[in-house]
Design brief:
about 400 residues; alpha/beta; Urease, subunit C, domain 1; TIM Barrel; eight-stranded mixed beta sheet; hydrolase
Length: about 400
């Protein structure tokens, strides 16, 4: 069945390209026409479902870094480790739907147990569940007792690396995740600045993954791990904190930054939705300034950013992606138009998704409708009226009780 959505403006894709008094015509799960309202209306069938709104139609949002197995509350790790498969599957599906009702039509999950996220992905694609487009890594590669070992991806040496990648491919993984450095939430594992794999091992990870047709996402806080991941040719770097050896402070290497930009590797900073509280309670004023300085420094070197939230960690909820996007406007100082592009067209490109993140004939009917103009006011993204996921209409939580004509 066709659906026609008309609005004051339609944001069709990159660089804030927009059509005033525009319309989007959806046929099933695909966009069939986009343009000026009068032109698109002529292509609509008499039986077409018609929705008229006063605000903006734009591509659905893309969150490039989440953990759907975690519940975003304190103690989440203990509950995760105690949960059985049924509990985990229900939680994954519910959190994915919560994100969808907040305007996020694509999620990339970067770590779960036994590929459970991939089972939910398949259920959504079969039509058994309404949900966002899901990409998943399955268990991330990590050394024995390394960061996030509890996902089940522990490997030691080349043969185990190859075997783990083969198992993830067999699970149906969309991306291979490797913990190139330590992390902050795994007791007894290497510290964040310390590399967990050698340069040769990262070369092997990338070679095996790319041979299987899969991109590689590298968790890397330390500069040594960032440099090795970059040289290996990973596709995205998660966190990219530029921590010096033995936690000696920032180690910003010009040569590595230039190589990241030259290789067109996207950096997912993974900042939480409630970033003000995070800065006040966790990193402090000095730490917040250091983060901003790193972002501006990377931006000056031409590094491409893709937004993500690490949703699932305590207070990093699934239904406030817009809060995380506001950080880049209010703290970093980038324009709302740039941030909207990052979270739609740019994120889809970084994740290797064709026909996603823009509104054009033949593209997926992943659509967000909001009141106001998000290209000039990022908070307009909170005022959601309607979401389409592959053409299926979903009422956002923010629109419950409102009337959409």
């Amino acid at each position: 069945m066709q659906q026609l959505i008309t609005a004051e403006q339609v944001v069709v894709g990159p660089a804030g390209q927009r059509v005033a008094d525009g319309a989007v015509l959806v046929d099933g799960d695909t966009i069939s026409a986009v343009g000026p309202r009068r032109e698109v209306e002529r292509r609509a069938e008499d039986t077409c479902r018609r929705t008229a709104v006063g605000g903006t139609v734009l591509p659905g949002l893309v969150n490039a870094h989440v953990h759907l197995s975690w519940d975003a509350d304190f103690g989440m790790l203990e509950r995760y480790r105690a949960a059985d498969y049924a509990e985990l599957l229900l939680g994954i599906a519910g959190r994915a739907q919560r994100a969808l009702r907040a305007g996020v039509t694509t999620l990339r999950d970067l770590g779960d147990r036994d590929g459970l996220v991939l089972r939910v992905r398949d259920a959504i694609e079969r039509g058994d569940l309404v949900g966002p487009r899901l990409l998943g890594s399955g268990p991330p590669l990590t050394p024995p007792e390394g960061h996030c070992w509890f996902f089940g991806g522990e490997v030691s040496g080349p043969e185990e690396i190859r075997a783990r990648i083969r198992r993830n491919v067999a699970l149906g993984a969309d991306v291979i995740k490797v913990m190139a450095s330590g992390g902050q939430m795994t007791p007894g594992s290497p510290p964040t600045w310390q590399s967990q794999f050698s340069a040769e091992e990262l070369d092997l990870v990338v070679g095996e993954a790319h041979a299987a047709g899969l991109p590689v996402a590298a968790h890397a806080h330390g500069t040594e791990a960032i440099a090795a991941a970059t040289a290996a040719g990973v596709d995205t770097i998660e966190h990219c904190s530029w921590q010096g050896a033995r936690n000696s402070g920032p180690d910003l290497r010009e040569d590595v930054a230039r190589e990241i930009a030259a290789r067109d590797i996207a950096v997912c900073h993974a900042y939480p939705p409630d970033w003000r509280s995070f800065q006040r309670v966790v990193v402090g004023e000095k730490g917040a300034r250091a983060v901003l300085e790193r972002i501006h420094w990377m931006d000056e070197h031409g590094i491409r950013f893709v937004p993500g939230t690490d949703a699932g960690l305590p207070t990093s909820v699934f239904d406030n992606y817009v809060g995380a996007l506001s950080y880049y406007v209010e703290a970093v100082g980038w324009s709302p138009a740039r941030v909207v592009e990052m979270a739609t067209t740019g994120a889809a490109r970084a994740l290797g998704l064709e026909g996603v993140g823009r509104l054009a004939p033949g593209c997926a009917a992943d659509v967000l409708v909001v009141d106001g103009d998000p290209l000039s006011d990022i908070t307009a993204l909170h005022r959601q009226r309607l979401v389409l996921a592959r053409g299926q209409a979903v009422v956002p939580d923010a629109a419950v009780g409102q009337r959409v004509s």
